[in-house]
User: What shape does this take?
Amino acid sequence: MIRVRRLLLALGMSACACAPITYSDAGAVDFATLRSVRVRVTSPIDSVAATLYLASELRELSGFSRVTVESTVAVDAVLEVYVSTLPEAQTRDDGSIDSYYSSQATYRLSTPRDPAVDWGHTSDQSEYEWEALEDALDQVAVHYIRPYRL
Assistant: This one.
């Protein structure tokens, strides 16, 4: 009887043992079909610099094999992003004012056959205007991260 209890105790404890954890992300879109993308960012700050920044981030992080900003290059999809950045202020409990910039980015990935393959919005804030814009664009780039399984 004691053996049976020990066996049951051992089985019960092993059932509660740690299981391996797997982290994975299949990707926001089918990167096998959408291998190349053209990027266009519209921003009241500096659309050209913002477009170049997002293209660079997508080249580094995304599952797209080719990222371009050139309108003459044939691509599988077009990623359009509109970013607005506004100054904000908040009064603290002690009466001092905390000022920062808030950026909202709205994005849409389209193909000739589907005008809305993927879309969404993101926001971020920072003490500096350009940094708030970059942070919002970083979140767009991370949305298109290449598939992984760890």
Notes: The chain has a mean pLDDT of 88. The beta strands are 24-25, 36-42, 66-68, 77-91, 97-110, 118-126, 148-149. The chain has one domain: 25-149.
